[in-house]
User: Fold this.
Amino acid sequence: MFLGYFTERPYQDPEAGISGAFLTEGGQLFAPGDAPGVIDLGTSNGLYNPRVAHQLYNRYLDEKVYAEEMGFDGLMLNEHHASLFCMGGAINVEAAILARITKRAKIVLLGNVLPIWDDPMWLAEELAEIDLISGGRLVPGWVRGTGRESVAHNAQSPFNWERFQEAHDFVIKTWTTDGPFRWEGKHFQYRYVNPWSRPMQQPHPPIWIPGTLSKNTLRWAAEHRYPYIMLGGELDAVRESFDYYRECASNVGYEAGPEHFGYVIKVHVEESDDQAYEVGRKYLQGPSNPFIEGNQGEVRQHLQSLPGLSPRKGDMLPMKRDRAQAKARGVDTAEAPPKEEKPRVPQAERDFSGSYDKQIERFNIVVGSPETVIERMHHVVETLQLGSVFLWDGDGAMSHEDAMSSLTLMGRHVLPAMRQIGDDLNLPGPYDFDPPRGSVG
Amino acid sequence: MQVAGLRVQYLEAGAGAGTPLLVLHRSTGNPGWLPFHEELSGGGRTVVPDLPGYGQSERPDWAREPRDLAILLHRALDHIGLDRVSVVGLGFGGWVAAEMAVLQQQRFERLVLVGAPGIRPDEGEILDQMMMAFEVYVRACFADQSAFDAEFGEQPDAATRELWDFSREMTARLTWKPYMWDWRLPYLLPEVRTPALLVWGGEDGVVPRSVGRQYRDALPEARLEVVEGAGHMVEVERPPELAALVRAFVA
Assistant:
């Protein structure tokens, strides 16, 4: 069992009102309870306070270092652009720092947004350098990105999938082939491919693919024998998606095992269940990911569903039934009436508590004392037959103290218990059983 | 009809000895035979193709810019045997018409561009449909919102939304960046001797009027008419008025 730690690194700024549930609009400070939620791609960076960001970047790095100390196998970073809820626009910078200041844990990028790189050679070089500095601890993961990424870097959305695949093929070839060579592709052309830095891990670092909805990405990952890391979602839907991966694997002649399946799940631990329940509410507060049901932010659907970014009909995973998520990803634009025109409900009048309880009930959020969390995580890893689990904590409106105390309890109680569960259930992780070669690592 | 291995679909009506009229639709697609088409066909043969990649015309996967559509449309006209036409280009269709004129102006007796993008505005910006919901964008194409309601209903139906969604994807393939203009076009327009009429809605909130002036200044034989009070979709807001302007100009 591979155990990773994740936080999305929200931009929290109490002075500007961007913390907890509050956000200023037009410079006006709202009283608690009156502020509108964060609007995805609708908040000017005029509000940005570099001093706050300086503290937050270092806070999140410190938490990663402590997570390694507490026994996590992997430190996961994700990437979003022009977004309050994720400060990781340039995750290779964070990864490079972790490469130097951590000693043992894998640095798991889930992931770089491949289609927005007009020059994937640069990406190949950066990742190789991170792998070298870390002594071969990098796990690059690659995503297609949401609409906000295409908007922020002005990547042509209809060619998102083509560019993803070609950039992947290019980077892998760059890492595995002695240069120089030429690349005459459809979207990328190079006359001289011969970067001096090559990754430490040979033939190349392991690739893991995170995702949620796109069926062709899942099929593609299965065909490449890349572990697929599901970013949240309903357990039944995730299980069905994994079944689809197994089916695709079997079609290309191998049997997928737990080492191919990972899951990112919100987990927060406190000494008592009551305490954890109260702190866990902060997941749904503040500039946390607006994809998440019950979140106080708002997604602008038309930007998530940029033309041609994702299939409009069919070819979607069972995750589609997770309607809040599907809508947030903008997969049913053509059918659904416009959403963003309705008046916004003031914060004070919204009721998020029902959603919080529902998410706990459905295992989207796991909060509690170590005993409670271990019991619930047992159910999750057994249901999904997971080889990798990423515990997502310290998010939303959670403070550094919230994150650190939970990490301590994870290290003392939850991680050892989960390793035992993994052994008892015979769930090898991607470092116990090599996914590409199907052999014991 | 097949062009470069792709089906190209078109509607037509009207007859007469005069030069046929070719009407090129907007980036939002052609919903069908419009009152504006009907008005025009009263004066002679009127041909309304679905641009390649839009509506019922198959998508050229390889196409990357409006000029590719212009080439395909010229070949489509060869197939239909329309050696000489006048062309009316609406919005994005106007840009395609301008590209067609640059490529093969001998084919055109008259050129009418209605609120056409294609040139980087000297003043203002072209409203970016990629950054807004379909309804918000199409409503912004109207000065009179009741005209939108009359055409699409207060809440457009699924078929309309699907047409917009489908069309937008093709548009994103052709003009993502730069959005709705081409660096080269203004340098080529001065060679086009075809008499041209530029029509702009006085309240066009999509393509700035400055683009109309830039077209007028670049084309040697052009004049600019403003339909006061109309928005970007002049042909839907003022069908008889626009049709009368066109018919008078091509007659």
In short: The radius of gyration of chain B is 16 Å. The first helix of chain B runs from residue 35 to 41.
